[in-house]
Design goal:
Layout (H helix, E strand, L loop, with lengths): L3 E2 L2 H21 L6 E7 L3 H16 L3 E7 L5 H13 L5 E4 L9 H7 L11 H8 L10 H12 L8 E5 L6 H10 L3 E5 L6 H6 L3 E4 L17 E4 L3 E4 L18 E4 L4 H4 L5 E2 L6 H21 L1
Helix pairs in contact: 1-10, 2-10, 6-7, 6-10
Bound molecules: NADPH dihydro-nicotinamide-adenine-dinucleotide phosphate (NDP).
The site of NADPH dihydro-nicotinamide-adenine-dinucleotide phosphate has 24 residues, from helix 10.
């Protein structure tokens, strides 16, 4: 392996410890305990797991969480009423609406309604719009892209003047990651499903952020020697027996899976200068940055 491993688990732990210390200090100074409201619509198991992890993180760092699980058939009006109530609640510093919402709900209207001072996910059109504008600063940056940039900085990767390629242009990862890199003075190319020659575009990059949700699609020979590779993808692929048949779990009777990123790690680590693993790279950073944003929300609301 030639690449230096960027250990997201260790860096996230450090961020969480810093947040915990600042929370304890503000409480010792007589200030309020930061509070995060989580809104979970319906019973999606993955969404419930993510919300649970966020609540646990709040408890660990000395923050309060207020959980609002609502039925999957909630009306737009009732969901909007809940958001308005949370906007008005002084104990709630941050509001997190777990996405995706069921199809009958207008996600954009819901996100637009979250007060920008409580938009700890950074998904409100105002915060995203500010991220896109020169000379304007968002109050909050979306947690996963924020984590990607944080990892690059912690690893000492120079961003200013670098050629960066972002694979993917989603509202929650690819596009805000590209905007953040521009703010950091990188020269940025965004590639997506209509890009004609993906490998050629990626080969120009000193920094690669991969967020396409395609298991191990970025190959070693797409990577410029020495480049920094941040792999956001989380994909489950089947584990196989020696004869190539799916490995079945004795416990559940279901095929076993392993998690891989959007980058072929074994190939990429031989070429890249820096690389994040999956799991243990970007994943742990997302919640750490949410905690940092929630503390920031409390600080903004102190004023
Ligand atoms: P989306 O599905 O919203 O977006 C995927 C993007 O990748 C789209 O822009 C799409 O292009 C592009 N794309 C898809 N297939 C290809 C292809 N074959 N070639 C080139 N581009 C392609 O995904 P997300 O942004 O929400 O998530 C991306 C990955 O990151 C997923 O694996 C997800 O699980 C993971 N993730 C991880 C997080 C973490 O905490 N680590 C947090 C959030 C996501 P187009 O726009 O043209 O359709």
């Amino acid at each position: 392996m030639t690449a230096e491993l960027i250990d997201g688990t260790a860096i996230a732990k450090k961020v969480r410890a810093e947040v915990k210390e600042k929370v304890a200090k503000r409480i010792a100074d007589g200030k309020s305990q930061p509070g995060l409201a989580t809104v979970l619509v319906g019973e999606r198991i993955d969404s419930a797991t993510y919300v649970n992890m966020k609540q646990k993180a709040c408890a660990e760092l000395g923050m309060t969480s207020f959980h609002h699980p609502v039925s999957s058939d909630i009306t737009q009006e009732d969901l909007e009423t809940l958001i308005k109530k949370l906007n008005a609640d002084p104990k709630v510093n941050g509001i997190l609406v777990q996405l995706p919402l069921p199809d009958h709900l207008d996600e954009e209207r819901v996100l637009q309604l979250v007060s920008i001072e409580k938009d700890v996910d950074g998904f409100s059109p105002i915060n995203l719009g500010r991220l896109a504008q020169k000379g304007r600063e968002p109050l909050f940056v979306p947690c996963t892209p924020y984590g990607c940039i944080y990892l690059l900085k912690e690893a000492g990767v120079p961003i200013s003047g670098a050629n960066a390629v972002v694979l993917g242009r989603s509202n929650i990862v690819g596009m805000p990651a590209a905007l953040l890199l521009v703010k950091e003075n990188a020269t940025v190319t965004v590639v997506h499903s209509r890009t004609k020659d993906l490998p050629a575009a990626v080969r120009q990059a000193d920094i690669i952020i991969a967020a396409i949700g395609r298991a191990e699609m970025v190959r070693g020979d797409w990577i410029k020697p020495g480049a920094a590779v941040i792999d956001v993808g989380i994909n489950g692929i089947p584990l196989l027996n020696d004869d190539g048949t799916p490995l079945i779990s004795e416990k559940t009777g279901k095929p076993r899976q392993k998690l891989v990123g959007d980058v072929n790690f074994d190939e990429a680590k031989e070429v890249a200068g820096f690389i994040t693993p999956v799991p243990g790279g970007v994943g742990p950073m997302t919640i750490a940055m949410l905690m940092a944003n929630t503390l920031r929300a409390a600080e903004i609301q102190d004023k």
